[in-house]
Amino acid sequence: MARSDWLLEPGERGNAATRLEKRRADGATWSEGNDARPLVHGAAYFAELLTGIRETRAGDLLLFTDWRGDPDERLNGPGTEIATVLGEAARRGVIVKGLLWRSHLDGLRFSEEENRSLGEDIAAAGGECLLDLRVRPGGSHHQKMVVLRHAGRPARDVAYVGGIDLCHNRNDDAAHRGDPQSLPMAPAYGPHPPWHDVQLAVRGPAVGDVEAVFRERWEDPAPLSRSPVIRLRERWGHEDTSADELPPQGPDPPPCGTHAVQVLRTYPNRLLRGYPFAPDGERSIARGYLKALRRARALIYLEDQYLWSPRVVACFARALRTHPGLRLIAVIPSVPDQDGRLTRPVNLIGRITALRELRRAGGDRVAVYGLENHAATPVYVHAKVCVIDDVWAAVGSDNVNLRSWTHDSELSCTVLDRSRDQDPPYDPGGLGDGARPFARRLRLELMREHLDVPEGEGPELCDPKTAFDRFATCAAALDDWHAAGCVGPRPAGRLRRYVPPDLSGPRRLLATPLHRALIDPDGRPFGMRRRNSF
């Protein structure tokens, strides 16, 4: 198997302006020799992140981007609030730089007494965190990354990329009792919504690629916002909207593993003044999926927050139609996060249409599930994971929807293992690629949790058809138990067959052809995504 069978080669990214296309002397657009580890659940990620930040020293570098950051969110108990931990690092002499999407400034309240945002807390400690609105109208900065570089200790360098924000609701674990620091969601999720999510910890040369992504955004000379009010605040000295210069980027960390990692992104073609590193935007996440899906033969395993854009799922449907042995499992939220009166009906219409397209292509080879915890509370699936044939795996901030593939800024890492998994030796795709340890172990870790199978057990799940059937059997047993009034012992597992909510009555009125003509399935006016194809 050649790496280029699965990963984007030079020119296939569709964006020659990015430094990611020019970083390596051999012209490769991915890095070799990495060690990638999935961190399933916010609790695992936050605990590791806390340890890593506290081990940084003066002169080290801490870079982060986020969609939302809550200063008081605790990483691991009292005294580990995000603002506190980042502030302590800055006071130790660590170079702390961050970029947050501006639209969530109002949500970054620390307390009534201190009344400061996360950016102000970091600045007070000597760091710098800017609020970035350099997006298309209706778009957001959705990338979620943390990079830790260690001066003189490159073997400790690490980058975290995935779906987990540094904010409320995310600090949950495998028991799925929710984050004690919770924001309200749909009533079905209760006061502490259970939350399922995944982040990737990457060590090795790919850390330099993720750092380069941050630097491209940080060094963008365009104003952080074009709002006259914000520009006046800057002139009056009430807000910092200019980025200080970063120290030069150092050499990449040394190789330390067997994983090829390719960093993929979405950027829109920004109006008025494009990104200097992506003048016409970038759709490498979409292109990466399109290329990998052409090799799918046995099983596509998805965990996704949305899965509701018919245009996006068309490439999955094409793979299902082309290969009659291919199966698809999707794990998604059984209940939307909010009961938005304007966008929820059309979002659900988008999901129903997308699922209809998939089932039309694959029939009973397509299975879609929601999750619940052992108290029968729905689990909100926020993970963004795809595993194809136990060979190619992607973990990132991007959802399977149009705005993630065209309109928002997104960041994802695809991982391809150099070695084959020999336990058992197996070639699920039938193309001679073999199963690869990283992709297979990621899929099995997630499946075992949802089936309540202990770690190390369930080797039969390596077989795609067996795994597909086990999910169906587990969900059917739990559905039957609920239908019978929850009498008797609860069956093992957390899977429920996904049933779209009812859109009859007044809600249906908001999903009229006129409404769908004005608002796309991702909740944006259609005019805001012109030229944003992939």
Short description:
With 534 residues, the protein is an alpha+beta fold.
Overall shape: it is globular
Q: In percent, how helical is the residue content?
A: 25-40%
Radius of gyration: 22 Å
Number of helices: 13
Please, could you describe this protein's structure?
The structure is a single chain. With 534 residues, the chain is an alpha+beta fold. Helix content is 27%, strand content 18%. The chain is built from 13 helices and 18 strands. The protein has an 18-stranded mixed beta sheet that branches. α2 packs parallel to α3, α6 packs parallel to α7 and α7 packs parallel to α8. It starts with 30 loop residues before the first strand and ends in a 16-residue tail after the last helix. Mean pLDDT is 88; it is low at 104-116, 514-519 and 523-530.
Summarize this structure as a short list of keywords or feature phrases.
18-stranded mixed beta sheet, globular, 13 helices, 534 residues, alpha+beta
Show the helix and strand layout.
Blueprint: E1 31-40, H1 42-54, E2 61-66, H2 82-91, E3 95-101, H3 118-124, E4 128-132, E5 145-149, E6 158-162, E7 195-196, E8 198-203, H4 206-218, H5 228-235, E9 259-267, E10 282-283, H6 284-293, E11 299-303, H7 310-322, E12 327-331, H8 344-362, E13 366-372, E14 378-381, E15 385-388, E16 392-396, H9 402-407, E17 410-417, H10 437-451, H11 464-483, E18 495-497, H12 506-509, H13 513-518
Parallel strand pairs: 2-3, 3-4, 7-14, 11-12, 12-13
Antiparallel strand pairs: 1-8, 1-9, 2-5, 5-6, 6-8, 9-10, 9-17, 11-15, 13-14, 13-18, 15-16, 16-17
Helix pairs in contact: 2-3, 6-7, 7-8
